[in-house]
Design goal:
- This protein has about 675 residues and is α/β, with parallel strands linked by helices.
- It is about 50% helix and about 10% strand.
- Strand 1 (about 1-10) and strand 2 (about 10-15) form a beta hairpin.
- The radius of gyration is 28 Å and the shape is globular.
- The structure holds 3-hydroxybutanoyl-coenzyme A (3HC) and 1,4-dihydronicotinamide adenine dinucleotide (NAI).
- 3-hydroxybutanoyl-coenzyme A binds near residues 20, 103, 126 and 272.
Length: about 675
C-alpha cells in the first residue's frame, strides 16, 4: 500500500495505490490522514486532487476488517478531516467509488469522474448501512429522495447519470489527473461551495417517509439493512448533522456484528472465490469468439439470449425449419420481454436478434469456437448430436452439454476428441439466472475447463465446478428438498403449511408452489429413469398426482387447484384425499414453522455434506452459491452450509438424529458428524 504526494504547481496530487481495489484498510486511512496533515501545512498547495492507481477509485471499507474491532483513525473521522482540510480536495474517480470510497468523495469539496466510472453506497448488500457519513451527507447533496433510493437499494449510479443528478460535478474526457487538476484550477477562481456538513437537507413532504418505508419493506422482505438505512436518511433530515452522524455510526456498528451481515459477507467472498477453483491454476482458456446452440427450446433460447447479451454471435441449430422458426420466435419473445420490462431498448433488441443465425445445417459449425447442446434430455438423441459435432467442428472447438441429469461421460462415450467435451449446466430462465454449474467429464482437458469458467465471466454468471452424479450439486439437493416436503405431508403437514413455512424462512416460493409452476412431469420422468436403474426415488404423492394428470399450473392443477387464467394456488380436495390415502397408518403430528423448516433444510445440509464427502463439490461455499443463485435460497442466510454453521453443527446433527429416529430423515453422514466437532465443514483432500 502506498499513498504518494506529487505537486503540479499549486495543486497537490494524492495518489492511493492499495491493490486490488484500494479498499480503506487501517494503514490506508492513516496514510490519508497523514497526507491531509502534510498538505494543510504546506503553504505552496492551494488544492488537492485525490486519485487512485489501478483498476478503480477507493471501492470501500476493507471488508476483511469487518470481523475485527474498529481501529483508528476511524473512517468517519478521516472523512471529516478531509472535509475540514484548509484546502479543497477534489476526488478524481475512475472505476467505482463505492461505500467508504464514495463517503471519502463526499468529504471532498468536489467530485469529478471519467464517463465509465460509477458511484454508490452498496452497504445494504453487505447487510450494513454506510458508516462514515454517507446517509448524512448524501441527502445534503442531492435531497432525501435520491439518497433514500441509493442507500436502500445499494445500486451504483453511472457517471453520466450521476452528473445529471448532481452526485458529481463534472465528467472528465481524456486524462483524469490532468482533467481534475484543470478543474481544481478553475474552481479556485471562484468562491468555494459549502462543505456538505454545513448544508441543510432539502425538505420533503411528510408522507414521503411512510410511503418510502412501505415500499422498502416490501422489497427488502426480511433483510434488515434497507429499512435501517432509510432510518438513517430520515434522521439526517430531522436531526442536526452530528446527531445524525452518531445515529448512523451506531446503526452501522450494530449491523456490522449481525448474523445477516456475516452471511452476506460470506456470500461476497464466496462469489469472488468461485471463478478461481484451485484446479484451474495454470490453465488458460481457449478463445470464445463465436458460439452455436443446438436446440432452440426453453433452455437453448435462454442460453442463446445470454450469449447475445454478452455480445457473442450465435448460430442456433434445430431439427427442421419449423423448429428453427420456433426457436427464433422463442428468442424474439425473450428480447421483447426485456424491452417491455425496460431492460433494453427496442434498437438493442433488433441488434440482438440480428446476431443470431438459425439453421438446420450442422456444416455451418465448422469454424465455431464453442457449441452448447440443449436438445431433449435423451441419451441417444444427445449422443447423435455429439457424433455429428465431433465430425464437423474444429478439433479445438469446445463441445458442451446442458444436460440436467444424464451422465456427461455416457453422452461423450462414443465421441472422438473427448478432451474438448464438458458439461455446462444453465438454470432456467438461462438469460436471467446467475448460476452456471461447470461439470468436467473424466476426459475434459484443463484448458477446456478453464474455458467454461471464462464463458461464465463473459456471461456475468457465477460459476461453480460440480462433479458428476445424478443431478450434480443443485438438483441432487433439490431431490432431497422435495422428498422431505412429501415426508412432511405424510406426517400431518399440509402443502399450504409447508410452502408458507419455507416462504417465511426466506425462499421466494415453497416447494409445492415451485413444482406447480415448473411442472411435475420432468421430475416424474427422471424418477422413471431412476427406477429403471434400480433406484427407489421417494415421491409417493407426486407420483399419484402425475398418474391423475395433475402436472401443475399448465394442466390446471397439481399440488393445488387453479381457477382458469389465475395462478393463485387453491387448496385441493383431490390432493388432501391422495395425501390421506398415502399417509394411512403414519403417525400424524402438529407441525410449526420451525419444525417444518428443520425437516426440509437440515436434510438438505446433510445431502450437501455428502456432496462434499464424495467431492462432487470442492468447497462448502460453492454449495451455498448453487442454492442461492440457482434455487432462491435467501442470500442473507448465506446459503445452507453457512446457515448450518452459524446455527451450530452440533445442534444440526442432534436435530437430524431426532428426525431420523422418527423416520423423517436420514442420520447425519460421517462428514457432517466430524465437522460438528470443529464447527466448520471439513473438506476431505
Ligand atoms: N474490501 C476488501 N476486499 C475487497 C473489497 C472490499 N471492499 N472489494 C473487493 N475486494 C477484493 C475482492 O475480494 C477480490 O479479492 P481477491 O482477488 O482476493 O478475490 C478483489 O478485491 C477484486 O474484487 P472483484 O473480483 O470484485 O473485482 P472487480 O473488478 O470485478 O470489481 C468492485 C471491483 C466493483 C470494486 C467490486 O470488488 C465491489 O463491488 N466491491 C465491493 C464494494 C463494496 O461493497 N464497498 C462497500 C464496502 S462497505 C463500506 O464501505 C462501509 C463504509 O460505509 C464504512
Ligand atoms: P425443450 O423441449 O424445450 O427444447 C429442446 C429443443 O431441442 C427442441 O426445440 C427440439 O426441437 C430441439 N432438438 C431436439 N433434438 C434435436 C436435434 N437433434 N438437433 C437440434 N435440435 C434438436 O427442452 P429444454 O427444457 O430446453 O431442455 C433442453 C436440455 O436442457 C435438456 O437436456 C434438459 O434436461 C436441460 N435443462 C433443462 C432445464 C429446464 O429447466 N427446462 C434446466 C437445465 C437444463
Amino acid at each position: 500500500m502506498t499513498v504518494t504526494i506529487t505537486h503540479n504547481g499549486e495543486i497537490a496530487v494524492v495518489t492511493v495505490d492499495n491493490p486490488p481495489v484500494n479498499a480503506l484498510s487501517q494503514d490506508l486511512r492513516q496514510s490519508l490522514w497523514d497526507a491531509a496533515e502534510t498538505l494543510d501545512n504546506d503553504p505552496s498547495v492551494r488544492a488537492v486532487v485525490l486519485i487512485c492507481a489501478g483498476r478503480t477509485f477507493i471501492a470501500g471499507a476493507d471488508v476483511n476488517e469487518f470481523g475485527k474491532p474498529p481501529m483508528p483513525p476511524h473512517l468517519p473521522d478521516l472523512v471529516k478531516r478531509i472535509e475540514r482540510a484548509t484546502k479543497p480536495w477534489i476526488a478524481a474517480i475512475h472505476g467505482s467509488a463505492l461505500g467508504g470510497g464514495f463517503e471519502i468523495a463526499l468529504g471532498c469539496r468536489f467530485r469529478v469522474a471519467v464517463a465509465s466510472a460509477s458511484v454508490g453506497l452498496p452497504e445494504v448488500r453487505l447487510g450494513i448501512v454506510p458508516g462514515a457519513g454517507g446517509t448524512v451527507r448524501l441527502p445534503r447533496l442531492v435531497g432525501p429522495a435520491l439518497a433514500a433510493d441509493m442507500v436502500t437499494t445499494g445500486t451504483p449510479v453511472a457517471a453520466p447519470k450521476a452528473r445529471s443528478q448532481g452526485l458529481i460535478d463534472a465528467i472528465v474526457d481524456g486524462d483524469l489527473e490532468k482533467g481534475a487538476i484543470d478543474f481544481a484550477l478553475a474552481a479556485l477562481a471562484h468562491s468555494l461551495p459549502l462543505a456538505l456538513s454545513d448544508r441543510a437537507v432539502p425538505a420533503v413532504d411528510t408522507a414521503f417517509w411512510d410511503k418510502t418505508a412501505k415500499s422498502v419493506a416490501t422489497r427488502a422482505k426480511r433483510e434488515e439493512a434497507p429499512l435501517r438505512a432509510l432510518a438513517c436518511v430520515k434522521s439526517a433530515a430531522e436531526a442536526d448533522f452530528e446527531t445524525a452522524l452518531a445515529f448512523e455510526r451506531e446503526t452501522f456498528l450494530q449491523l456490522r456484528g449481525s448474523d445477516q451481515a456475516a452471511a452476506l459477507r460470506h456470500v461476497f467472498f464466496a462469489e469472488r472465490a468461485a471463478p478461481r477453483p484451485p484446479e484451474l491454476s495454470g490453465a488458460s482458456p481457449r478463445p470464445i469468439r463465436s458460439v452455436a446452440v443446438i436446440g432452440g427450446g426453453t433452455m437453448g433460447a435462454g442460453i442463446a439470449a445470454s450469449l447475445r447479451d454478452a455480445g457473442l454471435p450465435v448460430t442456433l441449430v434445430e431439427r427442421d425449419q419449423a423448429a428453427v422458426e420456433r426457436g427464433l420466435a422463442n428468442l424474439q419473445a425473450i428480447f421483447d420481454g426485456a424491452v417491455k420490462r425496460g431492460r433494453i431498448d427496442p434498437e438493442t433488441a433488433v441488434a440482438r436478434m440480428a446476431g443470431i443465425a438459425g439453421t438446420t445445417d450442422y456444416a455451418r459449425l465448422a469454424d465455431t469456437d464453442l457449441v452448447i447442446e440443449a436438445v431433449f434430455e435423451d441419451l441417444d438423441v444427445k449422443r447423435a448430436v455429439f457424433t455429428q459435432l465431433a465430425a464437423i467442428c474444429r478439433p479445438d472447438a469446445v463441445l458442451a452439454t446442458n444436460t440436467s441429469y444424464l451422465d456427461p461421460d455416457h453422452i461423450a462415450a462414443f465421441m472422438t476428441g473427448r478432451e474438448r467435451f464438458i458439461g455446462l449446466h444453465f438454470f432456467s430462465p438461462a438469460n436471467i439466472m446467475k448460476l452456471l454449474e461447470i461439470v468436467p467429464a473424466a476426459s475434459t482437458a484443463p484448458d477446456v475447463l478453464a474455458t467454461g469458467f471464462a464463458l461464465a465471466r463473459m456471461l456475468g454468471k457465477i460459476p461453480v465446478r460440480a462433479g458428476i452424479c445424478d443431478g450434480f450439486i443443485g438438483n441432487r439437493i433439490l431431490k432431497v428438498t422435495r422428498a422431505q416436503a412429501e415426508r412432511l405431508l405424510l406426517s400431518g403437514a399440509t402443502p399450504q403449511a409447508v410452502d408458507a413455512a419455507m416462504r417465511a424462512f426466506g425462499l421466494p416460493m415453497g416447494p409445492f408452489e415451485a413444482q406447480d409452476l415448473g411442472g411435475l412431469d420432468i421430475a416424474a420422468f427422471q424418477r422413471k429413469a431412476a427406477r429403471a436403474r434400480g433406484e427407489t426415488p421417494f415421491a409417493p404423492i407426486a407420483d399419484r398426482l402425475c398418474e391423475e394428470g395433475r402436472f401443475g399450473q399448465k394442466s390446471g392443477g397439481g399440488w393445488y387447484d387453479y381457477a382458469k387464467g389465475d395462478r393463485t394456488p387453491l387448496p385441493s380436495a383431490t390432493v388432501t384425499r391422495l395425501i390421506a390415502a398415502a399417509a394411512d397408518g403414519t403417525l400424524q403430528r402438529d407441525w410449526d414453522e420451525a419444525g417444518i423448516v428443520d425437516c426440509i433444510v437440515l436434510p438438505m445440509v446433510n445431502e450437501a455434506a455428502k456432496i462434499l464427502e464424495d467431492r462432487t463439490a470442492l468447497r462448502a461455499s460453492d454449495i451455498d452459491l448453487v442454492k442461492i443463485h440457482g434455487y432462491g435460497f435467501p442470500r442473507w442466510r448465506g446459503g445452507p452450509m453457512h446457515y448450518a454453521q452459524a446455527r451450530g453443527l452440533c445442534e444440526v446433527v442432534a436435530t437430524l438424529d431426532r428426525l431420523a429416529e422418527d423416520g423423517l430423515a436420514e442420520h447425519p453422514c460421517d462428514l457432517l458428524r466430524q465437522s460438528a466437532t470443529s464447527g466448520t465443514f471439513e473438506v476431505p483432500r
